[in-house]
Amino acid sequence: xxxxxxxxxxxxxxxxxxxxxxxxxxxxxxxxxxxxxxxxxxxxxxxxxxxxxxxxxxxxxxxxxxxxxxxxxxxxxxxxxxxxxxxxxxxxxxxxxxxxxxxxxxxxxxxxxxxxxxxxxxxxxxxxxxxxxxxxxxxxxxxxxxxxxxxxxxxxxxxxxxxxxxxxxxxxxxxxxxxxxxxxxxxxxxxxxxxxxxxxxxxxxxxxxxxxxxxxxxxxxxxxxxxxxxxxxxxxxxxxxxxxxxxxxxxxxxxxxxxxxxxxxxxxxxxxxxxxxxxxxxxxxxxxxxxxxxxxxxxxxxxxxxxxxxxxxxxxxxxxxxxxxxxxxxxxxxxxxxxxxxxxxxxxxxxxxxxxxxxxxxx
Length: 363
Ligand code: F6P
Prior knowledge:
Mg(2+) binds at residue 105. This protein has 363 residues and is of the alpha/beta class. It contains 13 helices and eleven strands.
């Protein structure tokens, strides 16, 4: 059977365990040897106990757990060619030449680079006598399939990334809770949500919580946003509302690309409107907790599809991601998605807001 390894990399997200479980079980079902790599790329470089064969029951009782039970890390060693040589050796010695990477765009790009230099790495290891020619032949090519795990929904090419729906549940629970206390004291609450470069969590939570105003990185507010914000807040109060909720994505900026922070907003609301104002920063609570049903099912479908894609892979096939398109799990070229994701970042950097919104909108 084929040797497959699965690992999680970068920031964790709810649903990663369901994806790992699906990869392991679909792999075993199809007669493969499936390995966990613990602690992401670091475990691949370190080898030893970090790369272990998975059994059907090793993934029992994890579908409901948040985070990633096999660990995740940001890894400096893998950025150096010596680190990648070690990683390649560790994989080849175990007969692994199929990888399922669960992570964000950085982790998936890393996997693609690894795949592109694989032939050179194999040759070098063989020349140095670190692997046998039999091992080298078995692992002549490296096949890569990516699954996007990120609460930010910041990856072009999929409608939803694994973890976003659960993070939204967390955020809405928090906003709903805040609303009661805000109502009692007629207060304005400014709530910061995650999303360094992506306003999805902020936008969707604002829409579903009846927030007064929302700040996102891709679509800055009007030039004179201070007056616009105050106008909206006071209009709502005059119409009889006892509170205002303002949602701020952590990466929010103005039209010149300068950060808009919760403190800045609080200052303006207090000074201009004399409203009693508080800030709540949700932080990593959003990445914690159990995955929602949606994320569990999404991850199961994607994990299973990833293994099938590896079975179909030929020496010439490109690295792909399994993504959600409508209600279908589909395969899309990895680098096409990465390039489009980087395109959004570039448009934001260039302050071309129309382009940023357009590119972000095209999933
Ligand atoms: O990309 C996911 C994310 O949760 C972002 O929303 C956030 O900015 C970042 O990770 C936080 O990273 P860390 O957990 O390393 O502090």
